[in-house]
Write a structure and sequence with these properties.
Layout: E1 3-12, E2 15-25, E3 30-34, H1 41-48, E4 56-61, E5 64-65, H2 71-77, E6 78-81, H3 93-98, H4 109-122, H5 138-151, E7 156-160, H6 168-181, E8 184-188, H7 192-198, E9 201-206, E10 209-214, H8 216-219, H9 222-229, E11 233-237, E12 244-248
Parallel strand pairs: 3-8, 3-9, 6-7, 7-8
Antiparallel strand pairs: 1-2, 1-4, 4-5, 9-10, 11-12
Helix pairs in contact: 4-5, 5-6
The structure holds adenosine-5'-triphosphate.
GO molecular function: ATP binding; ATP hydrolysis activity
Pfam families: ABC_tran (PF00005)
InterPro entries: AAA+_ATPase, ABC_transporter-like_ATP-bd, ABC_transporter-like_CS, P-loop_NTPase
């Protein structure tokens, strides 16, 4: 199901957090939002999974305005994995995964068990079903949350920093898993090299606006990334995958970030 953000704008107490954001996520594609801290990535995602209402523009899923849907319908169709998704309660992994059924009213125990088992196997966590989520490592928790999203059978997956707190192996596994699902996915990512390696398209946000969008090779350039992040960047091809890889030159603290890419 394709996702379209058209002219999205969000203000809080007269402050414009994001403005004129246009983003397209084609059916089954993985699209990344990148940008400096505070550039509006999470705010944009919140509008998609409806924890925030945009005051301008629209979020359309398969051509339908998401804000016109009932909350139950959007909760069924959109799964979100956010920093707030982490449970502070002593649920078992199985119970957390079952929560993905909530918007579907799946009441048969055997149906729940089948869905739970399939989802846990898909993320390689079947052995964790009876463990407390509080005892899991960061990587295991993230995978369990993906299993919960799978049980939900969503049309759209929204991920806010899914690789946060994961070691390099688990970061790669997480994005490989997301890629394999072939679900329409919009994700915020801090790591530009992960975005380069895994995303079909990348949008760069800066001060609440989209300043570039397109395939990683066109967007993750020294000029664009240097300008937006205030760093000097070299781009090389990954020797195996040919994806662009960004190498950053050291910065001195206290220098003007907006001049970073221009230094010799
Ligand atoms: N409820 C709010 N009230 C006021 N300002 C807010 C609110 N929510 C977010 N902001 C501000 O909006 C801007 C964008 O925040 P957002 O969390 O979307 O950025 P981000 O790109 O996800 O940042 P990060 O990379 O640090 O997670 C920030 O300046 C933030 O302080």
């Amino acid at each position: 199901m394709e996702l379209e953000l058209a002219g999205l704008g969000v203000s809080v107490a007269d402050k414009r957090l994001v403005r004129d954001v246009d983003v397209h996520v084609g059916e089954g594609s993985l699209v990344g939002l990148v940008g400096p801290n505070g550039s509006g990535k999470s705010t944009t995602l919140r509008c998609v999974y409806r924890s925030l209402s945009p005051d301008r523009g629209e979020v359309r899923l398969g051509g339908e305005n998401v804000t016109a849907m009932s909350l139950r319908e959007s909760a069924r169709r959109i799964a979100a994995l956010t920093q707030e998704s982490q449970s502070e309660f002593d649920f078992t992994v199985g119970e957390v995964v079952d929560m993905g059924n909530t918007p579907h009213r799946v009441s048969e125990r055997s149906d729940r068990a089948r869905g739970r088992g399939a989802a846990l196997r898909a993320v390689g966590c079947a052995h964790l079903e009876h463990r407390s989520v509080l005892s899991l490592s960061g990587g295991e928790k993230q995978r369990v949350l993906i299993a919960r999203a799978l049980v939900q059978r969503p049309e759209l997956l929204v991920l806010d920093e899914p690789t946060n707190h994961l070691d390099v192996r688990h970061q790669l596994e997480m994005l490989s898993l997301v890629r394999r699902l072939r679900l329409t996915t919009l994700t915020a990512l801090h790591d530009l090299n992960l975005a380069a390696a895994w995303c079909d398209h990348v949008y760069v946000l800066c001060q609440g606006r989209v300043v570039a969008g397109g395939p990683p090779t066109e967007v993750l350039t020294p000029e664009i990334i240097g300008e937006v992040f205030g760093v000097r960047v070299h781009v090389v091809d990954h020797p195996e995958t040919r994806a662009p890889q960004l190498l950053f030159s050291p910065v001195e603290s206290g220098t003007d970030p907006s001049k970073g890419h221009q230094r010799p």
